[in-house]
Amino acid sequence: MIGLFWENFRISLGSIFANKTRSILTALGIVIGVLSVTLMGTLISGLDKTFEKSMAGFRSDVLLISRMEWFSGDVDWWEMRNRPRIREEYGETLLARSQFVEAVAPVSERGGSIIKGDRRIDSRFFGTTTDYLATNTSVDVEKGRFFSDGEERSGARVLVIGGDVADGLFPDEDPLDKYVKIGNYKFRVIGVLKKMGKFMGLFSMDNQATMPLGTYKRLYARRGWMTMRVKLNTDQTDLAKEEVRGIIRQLRRLKPTEKDDFGINQSSTLEAQYKAIKLAIGGTGIFITALSLIVGGIGIMNIMFVSVKERTREIGVRKALGATRNMILGQFLMEAVMICFIAGLSGMGMAYGLSIIINKFFPSAMPIGLAIGAIMLSIIIGVVSGLVPSYRAAKLDPIDALRYE
Amino acid sequence: MADLISLKKIKRHYDVGGEVVRALDGVDLTINQNEYISIMGPSGSGKSTLMNMIGCLDSPSEGIYEFEGELVHQMDDNQLASIRNRKIGFVFQTFNLLPKATALRNVEVPLIYANISRIKRIEKAKESLIAVGLEERMHHKPNELSGGQRQRVAIARALVNDPSILLADEPTGNLDSKSGVEIMKILDSLHEAGNTIILVTHEEYIADHADRTIHLFDGKIKEDIKTNKRKNNSS
To answer: Considering CB atoms only, which of A3, A317, A402 is closest to B117?
Structure first.
């Protein structure tokens, strides 16, 4: 039987190469189908990876307390804007009263340009305390150091810059101990952060700069917009969140009947939102691209019917020489599967090539599981679309087939 | 001589648009080993149906068909395929070679379905081609061969499985007279080497090669004569 398998393999390759143009055109449907499905999957997995990477700074054990809620449908933006501000002092109270809070760091931020000589980078910069490092474990100082408590209290003009900022302003020199300007103020660069990668430009420290909160308040806003980063020491975030919520309600002197006038945000809310978007984009994308695979399968089926019709006499001869129904079935099924298999391989190859090019603009990498899945899928399409024509070939009456002109 | 084939009261009826066509209408026939038989008859007499019946391509509507003790009329599709593969060699009027395969590959086909290993297959196919005098042309495709050579490939293919019987349906019908003579010489020598051969033809001079001639008419055997003309002539 293995001998027969190889024979069918040879026969099918022979017949595919004998009708090159027809085979290529037929296979094109599957090539395009596999190409689009794998490319879609590659992009989605690339999206996933970068999302995860950028979310490392927003771990689920970190709560972000601010006036705004990230995803609130029922509170208007201007109403949130007019809420009382979040105060730096909340931190101490939270640390003292909550058993779940490990570290708290207030963060104030704004946008602006960082200038070095004639180079200039539009970036965001924020002021925080030294506790920031305890609340964001994904931040890693690559060169130099983070600022100290003394610098924070005294409002020293020092700056820790992200990797992209360093690359942009200091393409070929060491940024440490060099001076940059934000607005009219001069800062000394004391540290460079390791690059994190970015998620479509969002949530990345790479293109930001960090300064001591004391400095920030002195230079920009004493009573500015502020977010509290709260690092929890537990996995029971829901429980901890409730406790923190209670403490903050007390601090803001809310009556039991009043609604929260602040938001406790968490990466999981972002994640849930992201997952819903991903499902919508990915789901429809895969569905549409899968349609093209089905169209490709119909093309294969069509050409297999033609091939069976054309070779009716050959089928008759083979049957006269002793081929059973299953042997004929196997021969044509093999042909359909081979076309799809070769098409699947080339589609995947093209997708791989494209993903390398796309990777230069947008992170993407083809997962091995997806590659194997795409090949399996094209083989299945070959079987499904080849089955009916092959069955028709197999059940031909040898006498009729031999007489067929 | 042992009974090779025995047909008893074989009938084959077709239903063509509500009308029953009696292609074979009660045929009794016994064929022994090493016989050389020709089947003759006008078109529509049932020659081809009888040929297909003997060749196990068709099953009788009624009657008993025994082939070397096996009951063919009871067989299913797979068993018929197997008996065709092991015991019957076909030679067609239109050669019916696979156009994209070389002579050697064409001759290999029955051995593939007999599940014989590649090395042995090629060896046997070569032997068979040498036996019909085509050792020089094994690697040529049918369109590179003359009609006579194509028919010789077909004969080599029919013989490669050492069949019990060789069925030739108008083997010279598509050939010029010179090639026809050549093919008949090969068939004669195969008979002399001990093969059983059945020829279907409507040419008297082709039928004369056989030792026994069966005339069909309206699905029945009209005449069954032993002829030893050829042998008498040659001796």
So the answer is: A3
